[in-house]
Write a structure and sequence with these properties.
Distance between the termini: 54 Å
Structural class: alpha+beta
Largest sheet: 8 strands, antiparallel, barrel
Strand order of the largest sheet: 1-2-3-4-5-6-7-8
Shape: globular
Order of helices and strands: HEEEEEEHEE
Oligomer: single chain
Length: about 150
């Protein structure tokens, strides 16, 4: 009888412990490998994103973020931007800019970005990395190129 009570208590303890697991929310913050396609050339850059006042939670974020864009062998630029992510839809939209310093010239590059619904769900379910896609434009609105950023 005592053995039966101990086994029942152990099973109850195990079951309750398993249910009380903490799930870490998925965030956009992190390091990315960026593939920027300009014409027929692909440039590999590095990008780091971080929520300015709080982490950019994939399920619910609205606010500003900062970061760094590294174009190897050329320049490093701070990133400033804002974004909106929600589980409704689901959707995640980001807008940010850098100042490129190349060949003795400085110019602003604006990035629009999104996480599509399929990739959002895969990342949320631990099936794949977070992938951000978008377009890079110059200040006059002309398209510089398209890019894909994969979280490392």
């Amino acid at each position: 009888m005592l053995l039966k009570a101990l086994v029942s208590s152990a099973i109850l303890l195990f079951t309750c412990h398993g249910v009380s697991q903490t799930i870490t929310p998925k965030v956009v913050d992190g390091d990315y490998r960026v593939e920027l396609t300009i014409g027929d050339k692909v440039f590999i850059d590095q990008m780091t994103l971080q929520g300015k006042d709080k982490p950019m939670a994939l399920q619910e974020f609205q606010g500003e973020f900062v970061g760094t864009m590294i174009v190897p062998g050329s320049f490093t630029s701070p990133i400033t931007g804002s974004g909106y992510c929600t589980y409704e839809g689901p959707q995640c939209d980001l807008n940010f800019s850098i100042v490129a310093n190349e060949n003795g010239q400085s110019y602003k590059v604006n990035y629009t970005a999104k996480v599509d619904a399929q990739n959002y769900k895969k990342y949320q379910s631990d099936i794949g990395p977070l992938i951000i896609t978008g377009i890079a434009t110059l200040e006059d609105g002309s398209v510089l190129g398209e890019y894909t950023a994969t979280k490392q």
